[in-house]
Structure formats: structure tokens, C-alpha cells
């Protein structure tokens, strides 16, 4: 009997990446040089937001997607933070609402006017203070409107109800800096990775740790839920300092289902999962490649498909929601790649090659739209509900009718888990302290100049008085 190779049939085996032409990129953007391990980019069907390099605080740009080409140096910014902006995320249900977090210990909610910014925006519609150190991550709940999660360098995760403008829960089970947050499909579970080398699966409303893995051989950095498959995928580093991925059963984190080494490079691996096509994308920070796999329910679980190669290194990647893709071109995923050296944002489309120009239902199943499945009160009371699905057949462009209303807040204490989060004023950032120091030094110099001028005037008056007394007329 002759040997025959095992061919695997897959509709995505020929998916290829297509970079946009230069005129369809966003050029001339001073991308932030901050080394924090985030994407510094967020995108939805209307706007692209990028954290920029700025003096005297933190700022980010918000650019309408149709405004491609070169961006003017004096383009308006969102610049209300007093410290560097570390993370930005668009509200999945209201396309002109964006959350940002910063080294100034605050989380802020911004409302972008229709058509984009015409002048610098410094006033947020809502400012949230509760962390005692800088805030590194923000994440919206996937099915509930106005529920926001934030993770700070105080090792705490705060759950904010934006209708009240207050934190409703504090998760305090981590012993080091939280690196990543990921929700399952209905938002009933939260997975976190932490610098203490542990992977945790939590019930977010109670803060209870359901599963915990101590990853000694696989130091985890990033985690992502693989849709409704009850599996997690983590990226990290092996004991030999090679980049590695691991697949886990969310109900048993004692041992990973598989571990696979990727390469020997040092940049962080960002995982992205598309639940509609069951495709996993791996993009390395500092290199230009994007690998993609198909995730199966049986061993070997991960099947390598192909790799998009580019010589330009990426600092981060924004991902377009499904309802913002071009279904007529069989586009199944789209990245927005940050190229710091060129000041360029380059869209990269992942395309399934098809000859037919009709709608391809097999690669575009029903997908989450822009309508929330739950209200904050329902979710906080313990209700779980899957996201509301829509079809992309007619080109889903429906705008949500939900309007964000900032609460009217009075000055009062905020008690969570018996702790008053506003009892102590958050410590100032290093940049803010330096600005205060230089302002004080300038004020001291000004006062010294005034005193010296007064001393000179006094001496002049004393001399005039002496001359007047010694004059012959007075004698």
C-alpha cells in the first residue's frame, strides 16, 4: 500500500493578506513612543483612534475612516489627560463613544462629534477616579451597554456602571500587574493574565476565581477566549525564552491541552480570534509577520494556514468589527497596523479568494451587531444573555439609536467592598509632579525679581532722601 499525504479540506486554506495602497493609508501621524504593551489603536466602522506622541500630558487622534492620506500636523486631538494615555477602546454599541485610561490614574469617556473633531477636545463627558496608580487597560463588556472594566497598576480590576458614573465592584485577587483581560461570548466569564505568572478565569460579578493556572514553563502574556468552544489560548514565553502559544480547557487549567513554540524572537505575541471563521491570528510586536491558523474541536486543534509577511515592524494593531468589513470583496478580517518609523497606519485585509461576486453565506454567518443584549441592572442582577446577532448580507450599516447620557454626579464617597475609593486623592504622575516643580521654580524666580526691584527702589529713595537733607537750601 502506497503512502499518501493527509490533505485537510478547509475553505480558509488560501486566505491571503492584502495591504492597502499608500493613498488608502493614514500618513504623517506621530505615533506614541511609549513602550507599554498595548495596541495604542482602536477602530470601528466610523473612526480610527491612535495614541500620539505629545508634550504636557496624553493625547490621541480620532480620524474618520474616509479621511485617508496625509494627516496635518495641527490636526485636532483629544488631549484632556494629564499623563500618557495607555489604552483606548470604542464602545461596541455607541460608535462615537470612546474610553481611555492614563498614567494620571483616571479613566475618561469621550463623545466624538459627528464628522470627527474640529478643535482640540479637553473636556470628557465622564471622568472616573478609583485607581490609586496608573491605569493600563480598559475593556467594554461584550453584551451589556455602559459596563466598563479597568485594570490598574494597583493590581485591581474595577467594574464601572457608566449610568451611575461609579464603580460597582472591585476584583482584588491579583498579586501583580494585570497584563490582559478577555471575555467569553456572553460576558459571564473573565480571563486575566498577570505578572505573577498566573492565568485566572473569574466570575466578574462576584470576583470569584473559578480556575487558576500557575504557568511556570509557559510564562503567559496574553489570553483570548476562543468563542463558545470553552477553550482559551494564551501567548507567552517558554523556559528557553522562545515565543510560545498554549491551548487550555477553561474548566480545567491544571495542564494545557497543547503547547507550541512559534519562534525565537523576543517581541510580544498578540492573539486575535475570529469566532465566525474559527481563525486565530498571531501578530508579533516589533516584527512584520501575521500568522493565521484554523481552530478545530479535535486534535491537533490548531492547523497552520499561512503567513502575511511585511518588512515594516508593527507597534500595535487595531481590528475592525465584523460589520465594518467589505463583504463584496470576501474580506473576513481587517487589521490597522501601526508603523512607528514611518508615522503610518496601514490597513491589511484578510481575504478569501472567491470568483463569484454573490454574497458568500458560508464565510459570513450571523455575527454580533451594535445592539446590546442587556442593561447594566440586568447584568448586575445575574442575567447572562448571548449577543444579538445580525446578518451582513445587505451590508450591515445600521447605527445604534442608543445615546450616551453622562450622569449628574455629586461629590460623595464611593465605597466598594468596604473601601472608600475616593477617600485619598490619587497620587500625581511623574510628569505632573515635574510640571508642578517647574511652575513653582518659575514663581520663586518671579518673586525674587520683584524683591530685587523693590530693594533697588528703596535704595534709590534712601539716596534721594539723604541728598535732600544735605542740600544747602535745607541748611
From TrEMBL:
It comes from the Eukaryota. Gene3D superfamilies: YVTN repeat-like/Quinoprotein amine dehydrogenase. Residues 5-69 form the DUF1899 domain. Keywords: Actin-binding, Coiled coil, Repeat, WD repeat. WD repeats lie at residues 78-120, 128-170, 171-212. Residues 444-471 form a coiled coil. GO terms for molecular function: actin filament binding. SMART domains: DUF1899, DUF1900, WD40. Belongs to the WD repeat coronin family. This is Coronin. It comes from Elachura formosa (spotted wren-babbler).
